[in-house]
Structures are given as structure tokens and as C-alpha cells.
Amino acid sequence: MSAQNLKSEQSAAMTRWWQLALAMIAMMAASSPQYVWALFVPPLQAKLGVTLSALQVTFALFSICQCGLGPMHGYFAEKFTPRQFAAMGGALVGASWILSSYVVELPWLYITYGVLSGIGTGMIYVATVELVSLWFPQRRGFAIGMVAGSYGFGAVITTFPIDASIRASGYQQTLLIYGLVLGIVSILVALGMRHPPIDPARQQREDLAETKFAKRNYTSAEMLRTPIFWLMFVMMSMMATGGLMVISQIGAFARDFGIGKDTLVLGMAALPLALTIDRVANGLTRPFFGWVSDRIGREHTMTVAFLLEGVAILFMLIFGRNPVWFVMLSGFIFFGWGEIYSLFPAIQGDLFGQKHAANNFGFLLVATAVGSILGGPLAALLFEQSHSWTLVFSIVSGLDILTAILALVVLKPMRRRFLEGDALQSDLAASLL
After folding, report:
1. Do 193 and 83 touch, CB atoms closer than 8 A?
2. Quick one: 129 and 70 in the same domain?
């Protein structure tokens, strides 16, 4: 390799890592609306005078607009550059919190925090995934895992400051100030994003390398006609329910478990400490279990991780009234949950190829919206009707354990048959040519 080519390769490598860093920062900024929502629930419920289930519709709308509109986000992302799409998303996230600070009626909160914030966060998610997929074509799993992990633990930076701000100045002032901060950071970071230079010969080599599992690249329409996609969709919906139930309800069930604002663990308030540990666990689990799945297989990894969450949720029901156990078990719950955003995209790429991976994952991401409805307002409604968290936690734990069994008993053999049939069709088509 000539000195000029070597220098060019080194420059491209440096740029690639800078683009990954920008994508990670954007995802960290975009994570707060989802992961600190629980801190706003008690003061919003008191201010607006509404039931918990009615207020949690906001969270369900957020997830529906963030994930349920994934196919729409994927479609429009192709019409803009990642820079433009992420900047627009950041502006929406910031504006949503600023507008929410002035809300005095619940329907308006649905629009500002639920719809606008959900759409903006979804735009940033899709834009950054597309960006790192382009810059790391042969290491997509690693790059997407790092980005997804950044979204998982991004709120670590803001959880304690936002909690302190709510205590000192009230939730309205907090929404206003942090809305400005998150919006400005997201837009500035987005302005540094750009596509990699096009090298058709290199791209062709990378595409061939990426199809070592799937023998061809499936479009979204082709993928939607396969039974294995719908099995994964159901499994992801079931798993999403548990984590999103804890994210949206942790403030409510902590109060019922006797974990109040004055409850301390290691000299720190128990709830924000739990939320901080949750974010770290939720971020670390995504690249960790992605790495594990490369070595022991996707389905085996799913079984281990999903069982971990199911058992942790069951133990939370039994031991969660102890502040130390409450904090520790919430971390285990998220360490067994957050990896769905690395394992499911990975196995989807194995099955359907990488060429349309972003758009294809947009359809699978709709499962998160389903989980947000089950784990948000419906879980809250079930609690209000039963006056106990026992039934809610038992159902969620059962869904996790059932999904772990499905991964090993149903998904693994179905995936093997799918790839064998795909290879047979590919060989037949090649022979005809």
C-alpha cells in the first residue's frame, strides 16, 4: 500500500470513529424523555389531578410515536441525510419538553410529551443507526450495539440533575431548562454528521461479506411475508413489555413498596440511584450480550438474558420492599432486558440481510410500541383494578420466561430451516442462470 493510500485509510478510520462518537452523543441526549419519565410522573399526576393509568397514556404515545412509526421514520430517513434528519429530531425533542412545561391539561401533554418527543426521538434513533451502518459496514453489530447502548445509559448523566431540579424548582422549570439543553446539544451534534464517501468496489466486497448468513437481501415486503418475522415480532413484544412496565411504573410501585423520596441507599435517594444503575445496566447489556451472541449463538443468548429478566422481576415482587434489594434488582431487570435492541437486530440481519436492515428493523421496532401499551397504561389499569402489583409482576415475569423458552424451542429450529431453504433457493436460482 502506498503512503498516500495508507494516509487516506488512516484518515477514513479516524473520521469513522468520530462519526460513531457523534451518533452516541446524539443518542444519549435523546434518551432522557423515555428514561427519566418516571421522575415526572408523581408531580404531573398531582398537578393535573389525573389517574395513573390516564397519565401513562403519555408514555404509551411516546413509544408508539418513537417505535410504532419506525417504518415511517425509515421511509423519510431515506429522503434526508442523517445530519438533517437527526437535527430535525433534536429540535422536536427540545421543543416537546419546553412546550410540556406550560401544559395544564392532560390532552396537551399527550401531544407535547407523548407525540412530539416520541417522533423526535425516533428520528434520532433511525438517523444514527443508519449513519453508523454506513460507516461500519463490516462491523454493523458492534456499531449499532454501541449506539443502542448509548441510548440505554445516556440518561445516567441527567437522572440525578433532573431529580434535583424537580425537587428544587419544580417539574415545569426542569422541563423548560433541560428542553433547551437537550435540543441544543442534539442539533449541534447532528451538524457534524455526514455520509462516508462512496466506493462502489469496496461496497460490493462488503455486501458479499455481510451475506454469510442470509443468502440474499430481503426487502421489507418480502420479510413481512415470512412466519419467522412474526415469531420474532411477538417475542420482542413480550420482552418489551417487562422493561417498559418498569420504566414507566417504577415511581408508582416504588411508592407502594415503601420506597419514598427520603429512602436512602448508601447515602443517596433510592429511586434516582436505582434509575441511574438501571441506565448503566441497560447500556452495558446491549454490546455485552451482542458480543456473547456472536460466540454462543443468538438463541442461546436470548434464553439466558430473558430468563434473567423474568427471575429478576419475580424477585422484585418478593424482595422489592427492601431498599437495597430494590436498587439491585432494578439493575438486574434492565441487564436482562436492554439487549433486545442488539439481539433482535442481529438475528434479523442474519435472516434477511443487511442491505435493507434499517427499514426492516423499523418494522420490528413496532413491537416496542406494543410493549409500551401492555406495560404502560394496561399494566397501570390492571394495578388500579386489583389494587396490587402481584398480578402485574407475575404476568410480566411469565411473559419473559415464555419468551426465553420460545427462543430455544421454536426460534432456533425455525431459523435453521429458514436459512437452509433460503440457501436451496439461492443455489437453484444460480443453477438456472
Report:
1. yes
2. yes
